Amino acid sequence: MKHVSEFRDPNLAKALLAEIARLAEQIGATRAQPLHIMEICGGHTHAIFRFGLDKLVHEGIEFIHGPGCPVCVLPMARVDECIKIAESEGVIFTTFGDAMRVPGTRGSLMQAKARGADIRMVYSPLDALEIARRNPEREVVFFGLGFETTTPSTAFAIQAAAREGLSNFSVFCNHITVPEPVRALLGDPDMQLDGFIGPGHVSMVIGTHPYDFIAQEFGKPIVVAGFEPIDLLQSVAMVLRQIAEGRAEVENQYARVVPEHGNPASLAAIADVYERRPSFEWRGLGEIDASGLRIRPGYAAFDAEEKFGVGYATGSRNVPEIEGCACGAVMTGKMKPTACPQYGHGCTPETPLGALMVSSEGACAAYWQYGGARAAAE
What we know:
Blueprint: H1 10-27, E1 35-41, H2 42-50, H3 53-56, E2 61-68, H4 76-86, E3 91-95, H5 109-114, E4 119-121, H6 125-134, E5 139-146, H7 151-164, E6 169-175, H8 179-186, E7 195-198, H9 200-206, H10 212-216, E8 222-224, H11 229-244, E9 250-252, H12 264-273, E10 274-276, E11 279-282, E12 286-289, E13 293-295, H13 304-308, H14 327-331, H15 363-377
Parallel strand pairs: 1-2, 1-7, 3-4, 3-5, 5-6, 7-8, 8-9
Antiparallel strand pairs: 10-13, 11-12
Helix pairs in contact: 1-11, 2-15, 7-12
């Protein structure tokens, strides 16, 4: 493992920027005809804006922000169901902090807490498990949310609850997967994508082979990347090199962290606890087949959907977005955040209308935090 300073070395950054410019010109990319590179992960979006990489790269490179923010893609109906569970008698509802302010049709979890619901922020599902141990007379529910990065930790918590017989612990499962929405985007004739920056944290769990279809079926290069500026610049150069050489492969820039075949212990826990849902609704993308996970029948005692009678079994979904909110278009790369009519007006970090302005990985939050507030004022 190298020091962080080496991944922010200005001389190395200049060399990579020069290589990116050379490759972009070789390919023929211009401001009028740019190469569209989608960074799937919201963490990459924030890194790009934090370090100003969007302004430093060649003018023929345009970053497209993908649906890699699990809080952002959560449909409003699922937020409403969280609130319904949280407001049930005797419930302690636990959640990660970035989900507290995501709006549903009945407000957010933060507002439900203000109305009297016992909603607590935790840093891990194991924190929720400990709350269940200490409150045997209360029903403790953990809001299981996230891509493959956070899925194993929830699975480990469910396995621990089963071993201990903690009947007052359950999970409202909203875990989702990365490859399926990428396939949906590639199947959209309106999307013009030339290459991908693959998610680093997700790939630590699943490895690199789940992205093979991107290269093999759609002929697009993808490079799994780290989160430092040198990581991202090197990954962009690797994508451009593939395009210049007429190749489409899955490459791993983040090999110091990401194993080719993923993490065996995490994958085993996921396979034990979860199964695929037939479909799952994504904000901005609609229903995507086999893109969500649900708890297997063998662990049904720890499934909050079963305990509280909510979720897909009830048919409650497809709640329309707030009028004028363009979260879906922004999240699928069809619109920049600043083009949304609500950006900086009806929707700010203090008064968010959409999840993209709330989440620590949301594109709108990145724009706002790293200069978008000035753009809105102008």
